[in-house]
Structure formats: C-alpha cells, structure tokens
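Troubleshooting log. The previous run stalled partway through. Resubmitting the same four chains, unchanged.
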Amino acid sequence: MPPRPPRRDDPVRQRSLRDHNLALVLRHVTAANRPPSRAEIAAASGLTRATVSTIVDELIAGGLVAELEPVSRSGVGRPGTGIVPAGTGPAGLGMEVNVDYLAVCAVDLTGAVRHRQVRRLDQREHSPAQTWQALGELADQAVAAVAAQGLVPAGGVIAVPGLVEGDTIRIAPNLGWQQVALPRPEDLGGPRDLPLDVANEATLAALGERHATGLRSFLYVSGEIGIGGGIVLDGELFGGSHGWAGEIGHVTIDPQGPDCHCGSRGCLEQYAGEEAIRAAAGLRAGGAVLADLVDGGRQGSAPVLDALEHAGTALGVALSGAVNLLDIGTVVLGGHYAELIDWLRPAIERELARRVITARWAPAKVRASALGSDAALVGAARAVTQAILDDPARFLATRPAPAV
Amino acid sequence: MPPRPPRRDDPVRQRSLRDHNLALVLRHVTAANRPPSRAEIAAASGLTRATVSTIVDELIAGGLVAELEPVSRSGVGRPGTGIVPAGTGPAGLGMEVNVDYLAVCAVDLTGAVRHRQVRRLDQREHSPAQTWQALGELADQAVAAVAAQGLVPAGGVIAVPGLVEGDTIRIAPNLGWQQVALPRPEDLGGPRDLPLDVANEATLAALGERHATGLRSFLYVSGEIGIGGGIVLDGELFGGSHGWAGEIGHVTIDPQGPDCHCGSRGCLEQYAGEEAIRAAAGLRAGGAVLADLVDGGRQGSAPVLDALEHAGTALGVALSGAVNLLDIGTVVLGGHYAELIDWLRPAIERELARRVITARWAPAKVRASALGSDAALVGAARAVTQAILDDPARFLATRPAPAV
DNA sequence: TCTTGTTTGTTCAGCCATTGAACTTATAGG
DNA sequence: CCTATAAGTTCAATGGCTGAACAAACAAGA
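Second attempt completed without errors. Output:
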C-alpha cells in the first residue's frame, strides 16, 4: 500500500535527512500517550530542540500537526505547548466489499474514526461493476460528510476478501469473482481524483489491529465464511513475494482430510471455517450462524461446545506450525473468532503448548481482536493515513501547504 | 548477529548520512559482477562522482576496499580504476559445532573462503567446556593461518544445532545439551579479544546460502539428523521474536501421527528426519545413512525410493503450509536433502502444486543448496564480514585506519 | 605526431540540515 | 518583586553533498 517504501539502496542527500527526521518527529507525536512539547520530542528523539522546532514548524505549515493551547501542566519553568496530530486536513478513506455488505469509513490522522456507514448488499447477485458503483455512492457520501468536519481524503483503500496482485483481483471465492480488474477512480462514479488501492481484507485487518493495539509482531487470523490471515512483523505488515502472505486458511491439518474447494485436502477451512463448525454443531444452514454458536456456547450446548473444541484444536495445530516457523509471540483472533474466543482458546492453547517447540520458554499469547468486525474497514482507512505519517515529506511535496 | 541494526527511530545527523552512503557504496562494490569504477558506482547509486570519490577514499583508508591496477577496458575515454573488496584486512571466522565434528573456516570481505579445517570429534562424549576448548585450538590455527595471508579476524560466529537465546543455548537435542552458557572468548583458550557470537546452524546456513546465490527471499530447509530451517526475506535473515524462526522440523504433518521426542505428535521429523527415512527404507542403523540412501536411489531400490517418496510428501505438506503463510517463491533444500533432491523433488512439487493456494499463478521453485554441507560454516563466517559490509562506519570507528 | 573527443577522477565554492550556545519567554516559588 | 527553571527561538559554525569547472588518460583520425 505505501506507494514506495524508502529503500536502503537509495542515495542519501541533505533533503532525505530532513525527510527522515520529519517522519521521526511525526512518529513521536502520534506515538506519545500525551501531547508532547517540542522539548519532550527533542529529548525522546535525540534531536536538538532547535531542529525539532524547525521540523514542527514545517509539519504545522503542512497541516499534519497542530499546537494545543499552552496549558500549565506541572512544576516550574515555562510550560510547553503540546503538539497533536491534526484533527482536520488529510483523512483516509477505507472501503470494504464483503459477501453481503459494503462499508465505508474515514479516519483522521489521530486515528479516530470520523465517519462510518454500512450498507447491506449481496455482491453475489451483482456484477463487480455494480459493486464499484454502489461503493462509489457510499464513498461520495463519506467525502461530503467528512468535508463538513474539515477533512479531505488523501486516498482510499478497498478491502476485498480475495487475492490481489498487481492490477487484478485474482480470485475472491466467496464473492464468486475471478480475474477482476481493480477499479479506477472513475469506476466508482463521480470524477474523484482519489488515489485508489485494493488489498486483501485480512491483511488490512491485521494492519488495523496493529494500530489499534500497538502490538509490534503478531499473527492475525480472521474466521468468517473463509479463513484469512495477516502477518505483522516488527510493526510492519509482511506481504511476502506477491502480497499473499498469511493465507492460513489452506494450511494442511490432515493430509488425508476432507476435500477442500481449493483443490487440496484437509485444509484448515474444512475444520474451522464457518460452514464446517455449523455442520459439526448440527445447526441449520442459512441462519445467523455466529449468533447461534454464541447462544449455544453460552447455554452449554454439547454439540456446539464439541464443534468449537474441534475447530479450536484444528486452529491450534495450524497456529502451532505458524509459530514454529515464524517465532511470533502473539496470535490475534478476529472476525467471528473474536466472539467465540472463550470456547476456542482452551483447545488452541493446549495445541500450542504441545506442538510449539519453544512453548516452554516463550509461550505464545492468544487474544481477541480489539477492533472486531470493523478491523478490515478501519485498517483500510488507516493504511492511507499511515502512509502519510510514515512519509510526511512525500505528502508535503505533492500537496503543498494549504492556504492559511 | 549484527550487534545493533540501524533503527528507523534513530535521529539522523550529518554523520549518519555519511554512514549510510559508506554502506551504499560498499554494497555496490560487493554486489557488482565486475569491479566498478568510481564513475560507475556514482551512476548506479545516484550519488555524484565527487561524493563517491571521497567515500571510496575513506573506504580505502580503512582497508575495506582496494584499487585495481588501471586496465584499459573498452572504448574511448580515460579508463576507470576498478574498486574491489579488500582481499586482506578484516576477515570473518566461522565455527561449527556438530554432533560428530568441529569445523572452522575464515572468509575475507570478497566472500572467498581462505581457510577451512574440519576435525572429527563426538560432542556427545565430551562436556561443552571440552568442546569449546577443542574449538579454540582449531580457531587458533585458523587465526595463524590467515594471518600469514594478511587477514585479521574481526569476529567469530559459532554455529550450533540448537536454540540460542540471549546468553544461553536453551537446548541442542542431538548434542545432548541443555541450558549451556554461551562461551566467552577465554573459554575457547588463548587470550583472544575476538567478539564472539553463537547462532543456530540452520539460520546461519540460510544466511550462507543467501550470499552464495544472491537469492533475495527463500525458505531454507536442512535435513540432517534433525530438520532445521531458516527464513530469508528480502535479503535479510528473519529471526522472529527470539531468533527462533524457521523451526520447520516440528510442524505437524498429521495431528494423530507418531510421537516425537519433542513431546508433540506427527512432527515433520517423524516423517522426513534421517532416522525416519532410514527405518522406512529398511536400512541398518548406525551406518552411513546418507550414502546408503544415495546408493539405493541410484540403483532404483524400491524400499529406498518409497521411503524418499514418503519423506518428500511430508516435506511437501509442511512446505505448502509455509508457502501459504509466507508467500515465498523459493525453497532451498540443504544438508542431506541437497544430495537427495532428485528423489525428493517430485513428491514435494506435487504437494506444493496441490496445496498452495496461489500455486497456479506463482509456483514455488525447489532447488538444492549451493553450499551443501558447508552452508552453516561458511554462513557463520560470512555473518561476520557481512556485519562489516552492512555497517562499515561502525567498523571504521572501532578499528581506525590501519597503518599504511 | 598532433589534435579532437570522450570519459574518469579531483577540486572548490555553494547549499542545506543539524548543532550548540546564547537569548528570550513564561511559569512557580519564595 | 526576584530567582530558579524550563520551553522555545536565533544564529554562527560544522559537516556532507552537489554541480561545475578542471586536470588526467585514453582512442581515433588527420
């Protein structure tokens, strides 16, 4: 998603030095748990107060941060003026295409969700073109709504439940899409000049989770109709060679297991996918499966508890392999799994303890998603703002200082 | 291994700018397939000729690169003087502790192996202290041998078949070691002031493979008595949270499979470890298992071919999971697997094609290790030189320009 | 042999971002 | 009202890169 990550093979000139320190200061502003003063930023970053001052001035001029009213905080000495990420100006537009709904949200640079709208719409009954059109309408409304709050979207990211590569959606099984070209701004409707991007929903959800929790490294697993995943390493999303990393849904649990629609056998989805759990629990098809499972779990229904125990065991086996391979300390359960975690966790942790070779020295933690079902949507919007925060110089260069 | 990787949260001053460009220029010198001139480095790196000149001067003064005799290469114009990594000066000392041998080697900055010695010694009959002592003798000889060639080891790395964390070897199953403290220079014997480091052998082998082949991203799997692995992503070794990433040997193949000594069931080692293959092939225990397998394979022995086919299938299942998770394009087979690749590959590729969800768009390649059984040893030595090449400024700062 | 054209490598003034110290501003406490 | 303390700004100095001019080394042609 970042248009072009800074590469270590780039030559470094004076300007890139400033670029780096712009990002460094901005990072301190966003990461601090209390609006830091210029002096505090200087102390924390290792730069001098003089440098921080000029950099903060540049960020203020570019509309990326703002000064608070000077408030006397504590003790003697001249009180500092707190610096905060701008609550107006650039925003990120997140969009989500899922099986039976579309959603749009907007976040500002502080990470706050400033707009959110969901519309029920079954994509299986519509062509991709119709989906883009409907999504465009929602986006239009979002742009208008945030404009009233002083926000201007700097880009949009669309989350889709499928594999994205280059300029096509290779396949989105549950939408019934194959080889669908990525939408250009005009496909969404109005003549927007928004830079658009499309990415896998689980990947974006992992990103959203990373920003919501501050976790530096974790494996995110989202269980809905399909099972998706995303890997965050040291604060960075890990995409793999083609951006397809994290596809844990088709990891083999049992080489001789049941056939999977992907052509393989014994995939995790055949044990812990929504349909598999529903069938094992003896629930009716076509209903509100998640709600039924939660109800069954709460009421202690034996078939439901058994089904979740089996799913958790399979999840635990797959996650053990992932933890052995990646040596990753935390597993975040998202999507439906977040609401089922109480019944899934015992089996998952049992398998992790048994199958992860380093479990006795550094047991992996299992926790529920903090964002729940909004993770992908918010993650998509945050991907836009994060790109600005990660490389403010690029943003400032393309969009010169707004008229004051 | 790099004592302290450059962090993006560091402030950037003028000096770090020079540090970055020192590394940038040095990287161009080592990566070029022909000694580049200052002008060519400038063109390739984006720096100006003036800057490259001063940087090259600094590198020459520090003994990291050298000028070739100016040779008229081609066409008109003043011929450039080629710049090459120094063949004298700093060297890397690689050491390996394995079940039944110790080994030492030294490489120079060009990556060439300038010394290599292996000594049969069964660690299971000796204490760690005795092992360090014996290794120290080999190291002494190596230091003396390379000194005669104008090389001075700048550091040493020891490869061990076990899990290393902080300042202890947590466990090295096949050596029978548990909670062994990492050796300090004095534990090896003579009063050396060599900075020492210890790391997992498969991890280091992956690193060696990376430098030998130039591959940017791959999964390295080494099959010997145990199965180890290492992950290289975008040219960098991926260590995970504790440096334990790549432990593919205990990924679950079948949750109900045979018990493994690690306490789990159905681990890959139970299907594709040396002992498992030997037993399946009906070979006698205690012999030269690898040689027997290669012989059996060449002669078309049915039990041997069957055993290797089974091992390849299990490897394929485990690798499929890894590729699904990491979206990694290449799998490198090392250790004994390198010599058995002809009989393992068909089954591995069959499983990859069937089980990797993205196989039809981007099939993963399977190849044999280029370094074979020396991968860990050479990788350990290269880890030292690579640290210098990655951050020449640190080296130049600690070891000022040698007397000219 | 001499001249011309081309490319390499060096020199140097100019530029730019950071530094460190001095200075100004703003507060608390006596 | 004065002093101590801390925040923020100003400014000369420093270090590293750039660009242009220049010197050096070679090929090709006259």
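Takeaways: Residues 302-326 of chain B form the longest helix (25 residues). Residues 13-15, 17-18, 21, 47-48, 50-51, 54, 70, 72, 75-79 of chain B lie near DNA strand D (CB under 10 Å from a C1').
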